[in-house]
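Side project, low priority. Logging it here so it doesn't get lost.
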Amino acid sequence: MAVVTDIREESRVAGRQRWQMALDRTEFRAGDVGELEAVARSGARLQVPVLGVEIDAAGEVWHVVEKPLAAGTAVSGRVGAREV
């Protein structure tokens, strides 16, 4: 399990937003795609596709998504078809 540590807006085009989320740990590498999953308080499973992964100048790994999760949310991930 990992925890969302930071969220920032990557872009906003024609009313569509893309976000970047940082995690306290990750198996994703630059260029990877996959999925993050969290469990809501209601018990519903939230699945968030990871559209790409970028690493900034400070070495922080950012997961590009269209639907961000709140900081502090516990997540599990899947790179392509491999669970991490």
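Brief comment: Residues 2-83 form a domain with the Elongation Factor Tu (Ef-tu); domain 3 fold (CATH 2.40.30).
Revisit when time allows.
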